[in-house]
Design goal:
With 153 residues, the protein is mainly alpha-helical. It is built from six helices and no strands. 18% of the residues are buried. The C terminus is likely disordered. InterPro entries: Methylamine_util_MauE.
Length: 153
């Protein structure tokens, strides 16, 4: 039984690490090229009205999720927020691809090399990883019985 919990712990922590790397990279690239990020948001047919607010909110949210992953008691919350933000990003891409008359530039950094469809597949892969992590997270921790503490490390 303990071995099974350890395997789940490693899977959860591996997925958490992938999200930490993704969000650190994404937020940092947005901040480094902040003006370009703001311009790209302003060019978006769906987000232009909120581009000023979003240009700050998105990287701050990404860094906040990373910080939550670093705090033991908030790891599950961080994973749930990761799932939620990836759903939102993916829904945005879907709407841009299917309902927008204009498709703006993609993300900055390495992810800029991906087309919108490839970016959507990338996002779906991260959504599926988050679902796996949420499912394997021990339910005992969620209801507070503290019978499994291996995920605390």
């Amino acid at each position: 039984m303990k071995r099974k919990v350890q395997i789940r712990q490693h899977i959860f922590n591996g997925i958490a690490t992938a999200f930490i790397l993704l969000f650190c990279y994404a937020a940092t690239s947005k901040i480094i090229d902040f003006e370009n990020f703001q311009v790209q948001l302003a060019q978006s047919p769906m987000l232009s009205a909120f581009s000023d607010e979003l240009s700050f909110a998105v990287p701050i949210s990404e860094f906040l999720i990373v910080i939550l992953f670093m705090i033991r008691r908030y790891k599950f919350t961080a994973m749930f927020l990761s799932f939620t933000i990836m759903i939102m990003f993916t829904a945005y891409i879907y709407m841009i691809l299917n309902y927008s008359p204009y498709v703006p530039c993609s993300c900055g950094g390495v992810l800029e090399k991906l087309g919108w469809k490839e970016h959507m597949i990338f996002n779906i892969a991260f959504i599926l990883m988050a679902v796996v992590a949420i499912i394997i997270y021990p339910q005992e921790k969620l209801i507070g019985t503290n019978t499994i503490t291996d995920y605390e490390n």
